Amino acid sequence: MAFFIGRDREARRAYGFDEVALVPGTVTVNPEDADVSTRLGPIKLQIPILASAMDGVVDVDFAVAMGQMGGLAVLNLDGIQTRYEKTKPLFKKIADATPEVATKLVQEIYSKEPVKDKLVAQRVKEIKSKGVLCAVSSIPQNAERVGKIAADAGADLFVVQGTVTTARFKSSKGPVVDMSKLCDKLKIPVIIGNVVTYAAALELMETGVAALLVGVGPGAACTSRGVLGLGVPQVTATVDCAAARDFYFKKTGRYVSIITDGGMSTGGDVCKAFASGADAVMVGSVFARAEEAPGLGFHWGMATPHHNLPRGTRVKVGTVGTLKQILHGPASLDDGTQNIVGAIRTCMGAVGATNIKEFQLTEIIIAPEIKHEGKLFQQAQRVGMGKK
Length: 388
Prior knowledge:
17% strand
């Protein structure tokens, strides 16, 4: 529904995770019977969760651990892992620095050494040697070169990821990446992102892509909405792109998966993404605080009331647990950042869904007060939602 925001100017209302809630079903299902597996093209994942291609989230060891637990971690081929042979000392140095110094430090680390083809192939082989799927990522400008190297080294999935990606791109500065040719040449499934609209998603599906990343600006590390003013809240973006997927499937018989990327910090957010139409989710901020993350399991964030510091003060935020706790529990925290797979299963049971496709049909209601309704005592006790 569109609203007039001024004379002759309409704007469509869009919704984020905090503004909606899921309605319990008329039939409930035993959570243990819920099938949480999903597919990205020909690739089957036991759990529908990907770890973001961020330097502070995914290295070789994290990718292997994620794969062994049924998910998929995407390694950034433009980052520190492919510029330096030994990366742990660099991450330690970054983690120990203040936010202001850390930003400058990362810029220096990136500018000092280029991406090395030898390391691209080496990282892929290191992951594959452990018997798990290997997914890697690159920006569009580097996609053709590093994509071929990664595919030749045995990568299973290649992600082309930009702030905003479209099938058509105009430039007076020379040749641009032809997404259709890239998908055809690599011979392995390609995921492209990021996108937030029905029309752009539909055009990208025509390139032969296996899946699309949905999300502009929602991630903890993304500044698009603040710096550029770009973005669509994730519930609406996912619903629109899922509608494009369903139309394209009816038209061609080929299914292109939708991956909601960013803006999710709890199991509840993840469940709402699936109910909005996602086939999988990509998460970064929670995994950045895993004990196994190369960023050493903590990052800088904003002070909360329990820190007893002035509002807006930046503080180091500790780990939320091991990767196993975050994915499969048992949870030692009550804020939804642990046992995410368990949350998915439990929610599927409550809405009566036995698989992800049925989960996508869940009734959604607009509920902007869902985070506050009846939460007074939680705030007083500082448990659950009351901690914030």
